[in-house]
Amino acid sequence: MPANRLKSAKRIVVKVGSNVLTAQNGLNIEVVGALSTQISLLIDRGLEVLFVSSGAMASGLRKLGLPRRPEEIPKRQAIAAVGQSGLMNAYEAAFGRHDKRVAQILLTSEDLNNRKRYLNARNTLNTLLDWKVVPIINENDTVMVEEIKLGDNDNLAAMITLLMDADFLINLTDIDGLYTKDPRTQPDAELIPCVSGIKKEIEHFASHIPGALGRGGMLSKIKAAKKVTAAGVPMIIAKGSKPDVLLRLFSGEPHGTYFAPQGKKMNRRKCWIAYTLTPKGSLILDAGAEQALLHRGKSLLPSGIVEVEGEFGEGAPAALKNKDRIEIGIGLVNYSAADIRIIKGLKTNQIKERLGDKPYDEVIHRDNLVITTQKTG
After folding, report:
1. For the chain, what is the HEC assignment?
2. 56-65, 125-134, 169-178: lowest mean pLDDT where?
3. Which pLDDT band, with edges at 50, 70 and 90, does 185 fall under?
4. pLDDT at residue 338 greater than cutoff 90
5. In the chain, which segments carry CATH 2.30.130.10?
6. Numbered ranges of CATH 3.40.1160.10 in the chain
7. d(Cα 140, Cα 169) in Å, to the nearest integer?
8. What Cα–Cα distance (Å) separates residue 259 from each residue in 71, 112, 351?
9. Mean pLDDT of 99-109
10. In the prediction, which pLDDT does 201 show?
């Protein structure tokens, strides 16, 4: 199945982590060259490739002659700023040997949460692909603060996959895939070749395999897989330093761990709502509303809301939770938190009486609502 999906793919995202790109004295130029060669060959075959690359910190440490990453955030950001240019120079030289041009794209969550900036980023990336330029994408570490942090490049790669409607995400790391234990320390660890559904057992395995260098360990890769597979896109975790690993995957060889997609591909707007936006608050629903959303594809009416958490304005993303505070979905609200508190529990014909106006019957229309949990019961 992975071979068939790869064979039919027209556009892919390749993500490579810090552990793959880092040598003892900084950036691993040999790996940079090998990956650039493989991606160039795939492009020559007609594939569109978006490349999410870590490595700025490793490059910066090498250029500055520092032995390890400092703890202070401003120093880390300064090192990343120094290293980003070195990283891009390395890629420019490596891809240039194959007559390929590259472009640097640095993003924060603000760029993807704002609909206008999100669409602009997509248009820019589409233009680069049309021009046969390789987009090399990273989080903008230099300006990153908690409020605009994407988290790690695993999450960024998942977001880019959904943003660009890619057919496959290949996540290259320093081990061969997902194991039952950490294979670097546990000799009896077993590789899991295929994951058809990401259950708690899978997350448990991943939580015991930390990353050595980057922000993301195996658990962050599983979270990325959870996002893209829920949106109908498959993902593979494979060892990035394995010779010609990308070419071997596309030739049909089984490598790493394959995460099967759940259902058909979700449309791009719903992907943005479900897996890119950060909820600004929560709406707690009664059992009737929960069932209507989960099983009957209904919009959310004020009558089904029992509580409002947080402060947010009209049009903001809000998490939808059941009475046990378990998230079942996310949607864009038609009313502010203050107004929802006034109309919660009411029938739609009572909205105007309470607010003096009724621009919408629904608090969240079904077109702006995505179920993010597996349907049960």
Report:
1. CHHHHHHHCCEEEEEECHHHHEECCEECHHHHHHHHHHHHHHHHCCCEEEEEECCHHHHHHHHHCCCCCCCCHHHHHHHHHHHHHHHHHHHHHHHHCCCCEEEEEEECHHHHHCHHHHHHHHHHHHHHHHCCEEEEEEECCCCCCHHHCCCCHHHHHHHHHHHCCCCEEEEEECCCCCECCCCCCCCCCCECCEECCCCHHHHHHHHCCCCCCCCCCHHHHHHHHHHHHHCCCCEEEEECCCCCHHHHHHCCCCCCEEECCCCCCCCHHHHHHHHCCCCCCEEEECHHHHHHHHHHCCCECHHHEEEEECCCCCCCEEEEECCCCCEEEEEECCCCHHHHHHHCCCCHHHHHHHHCCCCCCCCECHHHEEECCCCCC
2. 56-65
3. confident
4. yes
5. 279-371
6. 2-271
7. 21
8. 35, 25, 45
9. 92
10. 74
The answer to whether the beta carbons of residues 335 and 314 sit under 8 Å apart is yes
The CATH class of 2-271 is alpha beta
- Does the domain at residues 279-371 carry the CATH identifier 2.30.130.10? yes
Q: pTM score, two decimals? A: 0.83
